[in-house]
Write a structure and sequence with these properties.
The protein has 4 helices and 5 strands, in the order ααββααβββ. By secondary structure, the chain is α+β, with helices and mostly antiparallel strands.
């Protein structure tokens, strides 16, 4: 069973999806700077302290399957639509708690996982 795409749930996903719909190859190195600027522009709206300096990611393509890989914990959270108030702390611990969820970034595998916190 498949799932449908929902707009406005994650601004980064919306940006990349609309770019693909307009025919942009988001893995092409020629578009790398444009995508980075687009992401920084999104961050300026959600993150007030100009913390875009921590934005670090790469986009890959294998068999027409695009994959955005965050290279640090704060970028992984941002790309997931979560915007912590203290990016430095997230980078130090590679963890973040938000709305009964504990997010954890694995530095080795570059994967963000989460689990529900029981109260």
């Amino acid at each position: 069973m498949g799932s449908s795409y929902k707009w406005s749930m994650n601004p980064f996903r919306d940006f990349l999806f609309s770019s693909i719909l307009m025919g942009t190859d988001i893995t092409n190195k020629e578009h790398e700077a444009d995508i980075y600027v687009g992401f920084v522009t999104i961050l300026e709206y959600f993150v007030p302290n100009n913390d875009a300096q921590y934005l670090d990611f790469e986009i890959g393509n294998k068999d027409n399957y695009f994959k955005v890989v965050a290279k640090n914990a704060i970028t992984a959270l941002w790309l997931s639509g979560v915007f912590p108030d203290n990016p430095k702390q997230v980078l130090e611990t590679n963890e973040f708690i938000f709305e009964n969820l504990k997010y954890k970034f694995n530095v080795k595998t570059k994967k963000l996982s989460y689990r529900q916190i029981r109260k």
